[in-house]
Amino acid sequence: MPYDTQPVASHFIDGEYVEDTAGEISEVIYPATGEVIAKVHAATPAIVDKALAAAERAQKEWAAMSGTERGRVLRRAADIMRERNHDLSVLETYDTGKPMSETTIADATSGADALEYFGGLAASLTGEHIPLAGGDFVYTRRQALGVCVGIGAWNYPTQIACWKGAPALACGNTMVFKPSEVTPLCALKVAEILIEAGAPNGVYNVVQGMGAVGASLVTDPRVTKVSLTGSVPTGKKVYAAAAAEMKHVTMELGGKSPMIVFDDADIESAISGAINGNFYSTGQVCSNGTRVFVQKGIKEKFLARLAERMGDAVIGDPMEMETTIGPMSSERQLNIVEGYIAKGKEEGARLVKGGNRIEKDGYWIEPTLFADVTDDMTIAREEIFGPVLAVLDFDTEEEVMERANATEFGLAAGVFTQDLTRAHRVVAGFEAGTCYINTYNLAPVEAPFGGVKASGVGRENSKEAINHYSEVKTVYVSMNPCEAPF
Ligand SMILES: NC(=O)C1=CN([C@@H]2O[C@H](COP(=O)(O)OP(=O)(O)OC[C@H]3O[C@@H](n4cnc5c(N)ncnc54)[C@H](O)[C@@H]3O)[C@@H](O)[C@H]2O)C=CC1
């Protein structure tokens, strides 16, 4: 390994690396080759306790600092992340298998954007003054929630660690973050960088482990808020556990998002949207537009040109900048995707391109295009989380809107058309939290990101996230004598 991928220790707590070898060992695998690149121990109850105790202690000191001071730390951390972008991207590529052409622009850089954005907001988080009759008034104080827990998925480990950490810390909370057991490495770097940037010890801590460690964090009475990125079944469990103790939650869960291409669309642009919305990160993106509804008149042209452009995908060594498609992040996910491709064929979808496992070390599969997919097919109903694009046909706007919304999910949705009024009418009708007109899958920090229906609760990024990491205290001030009926 040209890079040292083995972390100093498994956990980062109270400003330093910490180990407890009593925790179960898990191997970190480079998905492009199947090689073991690191080993980490899951957190024991003692480690979980140490992290929460540190976060609880640090929170008072952190919240007592001014927003300007907290913001300065976050912005410094953003600068360090950008300076180290290359090394952080290499590590992210080892952890996830995503090609360097992506990790250098969408992971540490996206994390840095979040740190910079929320760092900039921290100083202007204020309450309001509400004048009342007789000179009385109310003012509100925007206050931190306390100790927040972040739990991550394996597709965007650095980004998720920052998207949760940055708004939490800006508001004066502290965080204990548990990365996915599949990708434990990069969150440790985020913690290191925050402390180096001046965050007091204990403000941002990382503990490793599987679902059981996540569950023990969620139910701990010291924790006031839980933010999860993961699947819908896990989201339901975590939400229920948090609700039992009336904790705040943010849930960023899965999707089966529609992308609608009308026959007046700029077809090259729509195909780019379909590619970005299905094959980026080898299809392992929650907001992917995996049900591509194409109006009948342009269907064959769309399919032929999409298949042709898929032929230009560069599948290969993720460390090479020209590579555009890497492996699946894990063997488990590869098997899941292969299973869905088999189901697609079995249920009568037309395989236009791809569909095969690539026989070499690591977890490789071809980008896959299915046509003639119908609403009842498994590949049109379930989240695949892999590079499998399903094209469905439609005749009318009314029909496609009904079909697009006929899903339990509601994360994202997109429309490609040159008709301005139709574009706005369609997005207004989408049952989805994040919508796109003539593009797909962009997630700038300035814009709220999140889902409706089973896809989630709350929003990440933007000023909206502040509402999910703080609460308002109302203070009624009387300028008059207090009166009573007797
Ligand atoms: N909406 C979004 O922003 C995103 C959603 N996802 C979704 O995540 C899924 C893929 O990620 P996975 O890591 O396989 O998801 P997962 O749901 O299996 O695990 C997510 C995280 O939750 C933890 N966890 C599992 N059971 C838990 C429990 N009972 N209590 C607390 N924590 C628990 C896991 O250890 C992991 O860190 C996909 O379905 C995808 O759609 C992924 C990325 C972004």
Global structural class: alpha/beta
| Sheet with the most strands, sense and barrel status | 7 strands, mixed
Mean pLDDT score, rounded? 98
Number of helices: 16
N→C terminal distance: 81 Å
User: Which residues form runs of ≥5 with pLDDT under 50?
Assistant: none
Tell me which oligomeric state these chains represent: single chain
**Helix percentage range:** 25-40%
Strand order of the largest sheet: 14-15-16-13-12-17-18
Small-molecule binders = 1,4-dihydronicotinamide adenine dinucleotide
Question: What portion of residues belong to β-strands?
Answer: 15-25%
- Shape summary: globular
Rg from Cα: 24 Å
Record field, number of beta strands: 20
Overview of the structural elements:
With 486 residues, the protein is α/β, with parallel strands linked by helices. It is 38% helix and 20% strand. The chain is built from 16 helices and 20 strands. It has helices at residues 45-64, 67-83, 85-96, 100-106, 108-122, 157-170, 186-196, 211-219, 232-244, 267-276, 299-310, 331-346, 378-381, 397-405, 420-429, 464-468, and strands spanning 11-13, 16-18, 25-30, 35-41, 129-131, 137-144, 147-151, 174-178, 204-206, 223-229, 248-252, 258-261, 291-295, 350-353, 368-371, 388-394, 412-416, 434-437, 456-457, 470-477. A 7-stranded mixed β-sheet has the order 14-15-16-13-12-17-18, with helices on both faces. Strand 17 (412-416), helix 15 (420-429) and strand 18 form a beta-alpha-beta unit. The longest helix has 20 residues, at 45-64. The structure holds 1,4-dihydronicotinamide adenine dinucleotide.
